[in-house]
Amino acid sequence: MPVESSLFGTQHIGTISLIANRPTAAADNNSHISAHESLAPSPQPTVLELTDQVNALRAQLRDSRVAESKQRSQIKNQAQSIRDLTSDLHSTSHSREELEINFNSERKAHRATEKKFEVAAANHSKAIDRLGRQSVEFKALRNEKDYLENGLSRAKNQLDTLRNLLDKTKKQLEDTGCTLVAFKYREYDLIEELKLIKVELETRDRKIKFLEETLDRQRKNNALIKADYREVDFARVPNVPIMANPSFSSNSKTPAPMNRTPLADFETNKEPKNRKRTRSLCDHEDVQHLAPKSSKRTSLNDAHQMNAQKYDHCTPPVGRPMPLRRNSTYLRTPSSSSGSENHV
Q1: What is the 3-state secondary structure (H, E, C) of 247-316?
Q2: Percentage of residues in the chain with pLDDT exceeding 90?
Q3: Non-local CB neighbours of 260 within 8 Å, separated by 6+ positions
């Protein structure tokens, strides 16, 4: 279409130029006619004049054809330039369309970039606010860290003091353990002493009871003697004290008479006889319960050995000896017990 329009334009321009050139020829003809009319009164032209006129017309026609060819070449050049311009116009319009498309894409990209920039600016402002908050939190955390470090130092100092107190307490506990072991041994000794005291008290009670029974029996015998002294042959009764008893007699230097009359003969009112005194059941019981001191000492030593085996796991602490065990084989007096406690 653009090429056809350009060709149509060139043809139109050529026709216009021909039309424009025609009036000149008409004007020449008119001028020739007018000249001929002016020469009309003259006689008819000669052959030479006609040939000159024909030559002149031919020259004019040749000039007009040359001018027409020049105009045609100009028209062709103009048409070519128009075609070039139209092609340039089409290429320019195409490039313009491409540029418009690129411009629209660039505009869209610019708008997207602006939106991204706005988002980045908002994020930047948020980041600045967050940075401010984080700086405040960092200051608070740093202050808290300083406070915790101070608390840690205080806790370390308290821990050191507690460790020192713990060491002192351990030492005191070790000393207390040693004293506790000593007190345990002392308690065992006191228990053994109490057992011995109880045994001695029981034996004394039995002795007192036996003496009371003997005294009652002798009183009865004395009452019988007072009642029947006239019937008794005093010449044959030896001079024996009332409390005469083989188990309770004192060791005197005077020899005892051989023919002692037992008190049982006075109860029956019979004639006294020379015989050995029979031991009563009370005497046998008393002899069985009244053990010698040597046997008591051996039993107490055995008890202390058992106690030592019982407390062998109580090892003394380092740097402190174990208190000595005391095998008390005798009844301690208050002075000896107080001295032993002070020694421990």
Answers
A1: CCCCCCCCCCCCCCCCHHHHHHCCCCCCCCCCCCHHHHHHHHHCCCHHHHHHHHHHHHHHHHHHCCCCCC
A2: 24
A3: 238, 240, 244, 277
User: Token pair of 261, please?
Assistant: 């009359």
User: Which of 3, 157, 186, 155 minimizes the C-alpha distance to 80?
Assistant: 3
Tokens of 170: 């351990």
Q: What is the pTM of this model?
A: 0.27
User: In this model, does residue 26 exceed pLDDT 90?
Assistant: no
Residue 300 within a domain: no
Measure the CA–CA gap between 328 and 340, rounded to whole angstroms.
11
Q: Which residues, in sequence order, are CB contacts of 147 under 8 Å at separation 6+?
A: none
pLDDT in tens, 151-165: 888 988 988 998 898
Dihedral pair phi/psi, residue 236, rounded to 5°: -95, -5
Round to whole Å and give the CA distance between 271 and 268.
9
Task: Look at residue 117 and tell me whether its pLDDT is greater than 50.
Answer: yes
Q: Is 131 exposed, middle or buried (0-12, 13-18, 19+ CB in 10 A)?
A: exposed
- Where is 95: in which H helix or E strand? helix 47-227
Task: Provide the residue type at 279 as one letter.
Answer: R
Give which of 268, 266, 263, 292 is closest to 278, Cα–Cα: 263
- Are 21 and 64 in contact by the 8 Å Cβ rule? The answer is yes
| Identity at 135, one-letter amino acid code | S
Find, among 72, 54, 82, the residue nearest to 17 by Cα. 72
Residues 6 or more apart whose Cβ sits within 8 Å of residue 5: 86
Q: How far is CA 159 from the centre of its chain?
A: 19
Using CA atoms, how far apart are residues 82 and 88, in angstroms rounded to an integer? Answer: 9
3-class secondary-structure state, position 323: coil
Kindly state whether residue 192 falls inside one of the protein's structural domains. no
Supply 241's token pair: 């004290």
Report yes or no on 338 lying in a domain: no
Range of the domain at 111: 2-28+55-120
Number of separate domains in the chain: 1
What amino acid occupies position 47? V
Q: Is residue 169 part of a domain?
A: no
